[in-house]
Structures are given as structure tokens and as C-alpha cells.
Amino acid sequence: MASIDARGPYQYRARIRRKAGDRVVTISKTFTNLTDAQTWAMIQEGKVVGDEYVDRKLVQATTVRQACEWFKDRIAPKDRKTEKRMPKTAHAKNQLSRLRYWCASEFADWSLVSLKPWDLIEWRDELLSEGECAAQTIVHRLNTLSQVYVNFALAQKVELTNPVGEKVRPSLGQGRDRRLSPHPDAGGDDEETRLLKACGGGTRPWLRAAVIISLETAMRQAELAGLTWDRVMLNAEYPHCDLPRTKNERPRRVPLSTRAIAAMRSLLPENVAVLGKRKVFPVETPRAFGHAWRDVVNDENFPNLRWHDLRHEAISRLFERTDLRDNEIMAISGHLRPEMLTRYTHLRADRLGVRLG
């Protein structure tokens, strides 16, 4: 309930007392006329929910950096001995990197309530115009910031407007649509054949098998890098790989085709009775695939071809060469939304024509 006291000929003090958790909060403000005092009191009473007063002092005093530091502890607690943050998944590791970005950004010392959508739009447009990062990177950073706002508001039980809206995120455009060419070169080899020949030699003989498995399963680079033999069921009735940790933190079971099984068997080490948690590929990080790839694949022999294009190729082939439904292909690829599956699918008109008859 609001009260207004006349403190002089031109002074009116408006006061409101309400519960905020276990304590009683009193807010007041003095005006030079009664109308302004009444208007202010009505506005403040509008911020009262039932018998609880929404105290905005916390969100006004908390900076973006402080909220991000708070969120870090939720996704990557500190090790007690080393004081280093220990993310449990690749997704958490990426989140941690983005939180560090916001902690060092121009908005780090801004109050949570002072950051508005138009501030982020200006920041977004500047990054895009200068070509500092891709639209997808900006989307990832904004998604992380959005999670900070949502989780902080819920945990602290305060009202907090999230500055990250639909209009703030940049358009991702059409994305990459590079596929392996089916047309033979002068030697009669199509692009996949030439790629496998290039990857079959050198100091990394496992790279050829990795390319085949990627094309057959649509597995992500990080999923291949972390795959261990105890998760590869070659002798099951329906051979498959179990992926307990994926990009979206959801487990997935990936079926293996006859060709993928043969590639997997070619990687089995000799004279090893128990494989256990031994890695399928001799790499420490997902980036090792990129390093090995760039040693044999360049723009001269394979123009504009990237490792991630193999995943696009694999998903497109699942549509072209099988009768699987969209939700079945999503179960294999690990996509959660149909629109993301669409971005990875690039169907050839000639293949569609053959199916039409």
C-alpha cells in the first residue's frame, strides 16, 4: 500500500512498504507536486506481485561479467586443487569459451538491466561488417548470453528482461552446400575415389577409414575423435556405435552400414585382447582430423572442400539413397530440429529425377 506525505508547500514524499522474501522493503521518493507522487506510487505498485515486492536492486547491481562468472560455476565447477574449471563435455567446454568472451567484452561491466536488444544488434552488425566472425559464431555467443539471463533470473527469483530476442540473432543464410562431385576426372575417378586415394597414404593411414565412416554415419568430428572401442558394437545383431556424449548433450545410437563396418574393422589393432576404452582413432582432440585433412586436401586438388562437408554429404545421401523418414535421419545425424536437418541436406536434381521416373 502506498502512502503520500506532504512535507512542505512543494514537497510530497511517496512511500511503499512490501515484503521481499523474509524482509520488508521500503522505497520512497520525493516530488514537487502531488500528481507526480501519485503517478510514481501507482507505477511502483504495478511492480508488486500478490504480497511480494519485486526487488530490482539485485539485477541493477549485477553486471554481465558477474552473471557470467556465476553461470560458469553451473556448467564447469572449479577443481578444488588446481582452481581450474573442469567442463565435463565438449558442449560445456564451448560454453565456457563463450562465457569468457562475454566477460572480456565491451558489455562486461554493464548492469544486466542496462543491456538492451539494440545494443546487441549494433554489436552484431559491427562484427559482421568487419568480417571478424561468422554469423553462426555470433548466434552461439548470443545463445550463451541468453542462457545466462534465463538461468540467473530463475535462480535468483527476479524479473529480468532477456535482451536476446529473435531479431537480435543474425540470419544464417544458406550455409555451405559443397558436395562430392560424382563426375569422373580424366583418369575416370569421381571425387570420392580420388579423396580416398589421397587419404590412404602418408603417415596417417587411419584417415581413409575416418572419411568412409564419416560419409556412412554422418558422425561429427568431435564424436569420431572421442569414440572408444567399448562403444563400437561390431558383433551385435545390428552393428552400431553408442555415443553417450554429443554436441547437444543427448546420447545417440548410430547404425553402421556394411561399408562402415569394414572401415571399422580395418582400424582394429592387432594382438590386443581387450580394447576397452582404447580410442578408435589415434587422436587427442577433434582438431587432429583437421590437421590430417589439410595435409592431403587442398584447394588445388579438392577446391573448397572441408572436413565438415562430409557430414553434409552423408546426410544428403541418406535422403537420396534410402527411404528413411526425416525423424529417422534426425535420429542418426543427431539434429534436434527439422530446420537444421534441412541446412545439411543438398539434394541433386538428377537423383530426384531418377526417383520420380
Automatic annotation (TrEMBL):
Keywords assigned: DNA integration, DNA recombination
Region Disordered, annotated ranges: 166-193
GO BP: DNA integration; DNA recombination
Stated name of the protein: Integrase/recombinase
GO MF annotation, one: DNA binding
InterPro entries xrefs: DNA_brk_join_enz, Integrase-like_cat_sf, Integrase_catalytic, Tyrosine_recombinase_XerCD
UniProt organism field: uncultured Alphaproteobacteria bacterium
UniProt xrefs under SUPFAM superfamilies: DNA breaking-rejoining enzymes (SSF56349)
